[in-house]
């Protein structure tokens, strides 16, 4: 993998609410550690970092703006000069200035990490790929939760994660592991 000097690291929804027990069992218990390693490396190399923050329109959401769940986790708190994109839907491009600001900065390569793999990560990666960005999703720096499918069958977080990555790989993005970057 050839990393551009201005490849942007996009950290999706690393907010306090994502640890709420009501979200259920998850996979990839080391995902945050890997995200933190990537963030540290991006900062060290002075590459662009973009923090995506979900501001839900639903008061039942763990990301409802009127409570602490919407705040960034301490270890992922944006630094001065790091861009913050606030979104109200899973896709970080929808209704935001993300695409325009990336193009304005001449950024063509995106490294996407965060949560939830099947939701905000997948929808953002799909749009990035559709818009022509060279998109990489770091499998072990993402995670998701158990989910029931349309037919009522329950799937483990790992199964949901695997299917979501399968949906992305080779069509919208390239799925990699952290060892392929660091």
Question: Nutshell version of this structure?
Answer:
This protein is α/β, with parallel strands linked by helices and 182 residues long.
Describe this structure in words.
Helices cover 26% and strands 22% of the residues. By secondary structure, it is of the alpha/beta class. The protein has one domain: Isochorismatase-like (Rossmann fold), CATH 3.40.50. A 6-stranded parallel sheet has the order 3-2-1-4-5-8, sandwiched between helices. The protein has a two-stranded antiparallel ribbon with strand order 6-7. Helix 3 (117-130) links the parallel strand 4 (109-115) and strand 5. Helix 3 (117-130) packs parallel to helix 4. The model has no long low-confidence stretch (mean pLDDT 97). Residues 7-176 form the Isochorismatase-like domain.
């Amino acid at each position: 993998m050839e990393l551009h000097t201005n490849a942007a690291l996009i950290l999706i929804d690393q907010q306090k609410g994502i640890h709420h027990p009501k979200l259920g069992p998850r996979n990839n218990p080391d995902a945050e550690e890997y995200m933190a390693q990537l963030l540290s490396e991006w900062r060290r190399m002075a590459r662009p970092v973009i923090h995506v923050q979900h501001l839900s329109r639903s008061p039942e959401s763990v990301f409802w703006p009127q409570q602490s769940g919407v705040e960034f986790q301490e270890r992922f708190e944006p630094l001065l000069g790091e861009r913050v994109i606030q979104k109200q839907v899973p896709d970080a491009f929808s209704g935001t200035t993300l695409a325009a600001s990336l193009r304005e900065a001449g950024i063509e390569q995106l490294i996407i990490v965060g949560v939830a793999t099947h939701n905000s990560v997948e929808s953002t990666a799909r749009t990035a790929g559709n818009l022509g960005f060279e998109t990489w999703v770091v499998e072990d720096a993402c995670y998701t939760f158990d989910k029931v499918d349309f037919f009522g069958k329950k799937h483990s977080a790992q199964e949901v994660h695997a299917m979501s990555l399968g949906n992305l790989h080779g069509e919208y993005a390239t799925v990699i592991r952290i060892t392929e970057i660091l």
